[in-house]
Design brief:
It contains 3 helices and 7 strands, in the order H-E-E-H-E-E-E-E-E-H. With 132 residues, it is an alpha+beta fold. A hairpin with a 2-residue loop joins strand 4 and strand 5. The radius of gyration is 19 Å and the shape is globular.
Length: 132
């Protein structure tokens, strides 16, 4: 009887750990970034200067990023687009976008978000407007 109780207790503990580990990841980028708090979005250029997105592009990029969910490929990657969210001129988050299924917030490579291919193409077009 003691062995049975020990096995049951071990099973419950392992199940608890598994649920905890699965639940720790953010499922949507909005779990990490409060976009209602953001008042400015900038794109970081290759020379490390920044360009502030205009009102229409701000809304477009914000909507695209808000749709991002986990499920991409985790691990190290170089983001092709570096976006900064700001509040009162201060950077709140760095968002690296390396493709439709590779979006990281603040270099957290363990949680990688994804957007649709169409949203990624739209994001690329918006960012092309700000290249030097």
């Amino acid at each position: 009887m003691k062995k049975f109780r020990a096995v049951c207790l071990a099973f419950v503990m392992m199940l608890s750990v598994a649920v905890m580990l699965c639940g720790c990841g953010d499922t949507k980028i909005t779990d990490k970034v409060n976009f209602s708090y953001v008042d400015e979005i900038t794109v970081v250029m290759s020379d490390e200067s920044t360009a502030v997105l205009g009102e229409v592009d701000f809304k477009t990029v914000k909507n695209i990023l808000q749709s991002a969910e986990t499920g991409g490929t985790s691990g190290e990657f170089d983001g092709g687009i570096l976006i900064e969210t700001r509040k009162d001129g201060i950077v709140t988050h760095n968002i690296r976008v390396g493709g439709a299924d590779k979006i990281c917030v603040d270099k957290d490579n363990s949680t990688v978000y994804k957007i649709s291919d169409d949203d990624y193409k739209t994001l690329e077009k918006v960012m092309d407007n700000y290249k030097l």
